Amino acid sequence: MDITHAVIEHARHVIVEINDQAPRTLGDSFVHVSRVHAFTEASHPLVEYESHPVTEAHRAIARRVANLIPDGAVLQTGIGGLPEAMLGLLGDHRDLGIHSEMVPDGVIDPMEAGVVNNARKPLRRGRR
Predict the structure, then answer these.
(1) Which of 9, 56, 101, 112 is catalytic?
(2) Phi/psi class of residue 11: alpha, beta or left (left: φ > 0; alpha: ψ in -120 to 50)?
(3) Is the residue at 36 inside a domain?
(4) Range 29-62 burial, b when 16+ CB lie within 10 A, else e
(5) pLDDT tens digit string along 57-80?
(6) What is the domain extent for residue 17?
(7) What is the CATH number of the domain that holds 96?
(8) Are 28 and 48 in contact (CB under 8 A)?
(9) Catalytic: 101?
């Protein structure tokens, strides 16, 4: 979970941008219309985070970390070279889950391979 709901609960004014180019996510991101004071519509691509290169140091750390991750673990990844390197080493794992506010592109291959399937996650089990 992120801080969005806590911020909305304490904000004097809630202004929501509705962007038809923003993807719908399955996180806890819905805000009831009764909490919103104003809406603004937009249509523009979202700003994308540029991937950082994976260095040899990232790979060395990632090899050690990947060996510590058991099947069925739920990962909080973050972004950057180290998570990218680690995600690339999880091909032999099974039933991993992701619960993270920021997910790097490196999660795509393990998801498509069925390594990350959220099957054993206690919260939002099986959602992708």
Answers:
(1) 101
(2) beta
(3) yes
(4) eeeeeeeeeeeeeeeeeeeeeeeeebeeebbeeb
(5) 999 999 999 999 999 999 998 889
(6) 4-42
(7) 3.30.750.70
(8) no
(9) yes
